[in-house]
Design brief:
The protein is mainly α and 253 residues long. The protein folds into two domains: 58 residues, Arc Repressor Mutant, subunit A, CATH 1.10.10; 188 residues, Tetracycline Repressor, domain 2. The protein has eleven helices and no strands. Helix 4 packs antiparallel against helix 5, helix 4 crosses helix 6 and helix 5 packs antiparallel against helix 7. The longest helix is centred in the N-terminal third of the chain and has 25 residues. About 3% of the residues have low confidence.
C-alpha cells in the first residue's frame, strides 16, 4: 500500500516562504545596485527584519549565494530543455536553434541570475568545488551537450569544420566519460558552439548591442547560431527553412 504524504506543516511552509522572499529580495537589490555583491544588512532592511534573524535561514552570505546560483543554473537548464524538446527529435539543427534562443531569452529575462553564474565573480565568494552549484551547472550545460550526443548516437553528426584537436583537449574528452559517444573533434566543436552562443548572448545581455534595433539583434543572433551549427556539423533538417525557430519567439519570453 502506498502512503499518502500529509500536508506540509504551517511552520515549514512559513520558513520556505521566507527563504523565497530572502532570495527574491537579494535579486532585487542586485538589480537596483547593479552588482551581485549584496549584504545581509541590506536584505534585512528591505524585509523589515534584523540582520541576525537572517541567520536562521542562511548560515552566511555565501550560503545564500550558493542557493541563488543553484536556482539560476536549474532555471536555465529547464528553459533550454523545454525549448529543445518542443522541436521534433529528427530536426537536430532546429533543436539547437530553439535551445540557443531559450539560452538567450533567459539571459535577457533574468539579468541578475545570468550575472551570478556567468559574470564577474562576487568579491570574497568562492563556490564550493563539489556540491549543489557544481551539480546544477553540470545539469544545465548538459542540456546543450545532449544534442551533440544524440546526433552522434544517431549517426547524424557531420564532421566539424575544425578537425585538428590539440592533445590537451583530447585529454579533456578522455576525462569526461559522459561524452564518450562524441568524437574528440566533435567534442571540441561542441565547446566552440557553446562559446559562440555564450559570447553573442553576453554581448547583448550586457548592453553592447543596444545600438542595434531589436529586429537587427534577432537577425544577428540567428545568423550566429546557424553559423555555429554549420561549423560544428549539426545537420540541417530537410525542411529546416520552414521549421527553424525564431529566437525572439521562444516560449516563456
Amino acid at each position: 500500500m502506498t502512503s499518502v504524504a500529509g500536508p506540509i506543516p504551517r511552520r515549514e511552509r512559513a520558513r520556505a516562504a521566507t527563504v523565497d522572499e530572502i532570495k527574491a529580495t537579494a535579486l532585487e537589490l542586485m538589480h537596483e545596485q547593479g552588482t551581485t555583491d549584496v549584504r545581509f544588512t541590506d536584505i534585512a532592511r528591505v524585509m523589515g527584519m534584523t540582520p541576525p534573524a537572517l541567520y536562521r535561514y542562511f548560515a552566511d552570505r555565501d550560503e545564500l549565494l550558493v542557493a541563488l546560483i543553484t536556482d539560476a543554473y536549474n532555471d536555465l537548464g529547464d528553459a533550454v530543455a523545454a525549448a529543445r524538446d518542443a522541436v521534433d527529435e529528427e530536426d537536430i539543427r532546429g533543436r539547437w536553434i530553439a535551445a540557443a534562443g531559450a539560452y538567450r531569452q533567459w539571459a535577457l529575462r533574468e539579468p541578475q541570475q545570468f550575472s551570478l553564474i556567468f559574470g564577474l565573480p562576487v568579491p570574497g565568494f568562492v563556490a564550493p568545488q563539489e556540491g549543489p552549484t557544481t551539480e546544477a551547472a553540470s545539469r544545465a550545460l548538459s542540456q546543450l551537450a545532449a544534442m551533440f550526443a544524440d546526433a552522434s548516437r544517431r549517426g547524424r553528426l557531420d564532421p566539424p569544420l575544425v578537425r585538428t584537436v590539440p592533445d590537451s583537449l583530447r585529454d579533456c574528452v578522455a576525462e569526461e566519460q559522459k561524452f564518450s559517444d562524441i568524437a574528440p573533434e566533435s567534442f571540441q566543436a561542441m565547446l566552440h558552439a557553446w562559446a559562440s552562443l555564450h559570447g553573442i548572448t553576453s554581448l547583448e545581455a550586457y548592453g553592447h548591442l543596444d545600438w542595434m534595433d531589436p529586429e537587427a539583434r534577432d537577425a544577428l543572433f540567428l545568423g550566429q547560431v546557424r553559423l555555429a551549427a554549420q561549423t560544428a556539423g549539426l545537420p540541417a533538417d530537410r525542411d529546416a527553412a520552414a521549421t527553424e525557430v525564431d529566437p525572439a519567439a521562444v516560449p516563456g519570453t
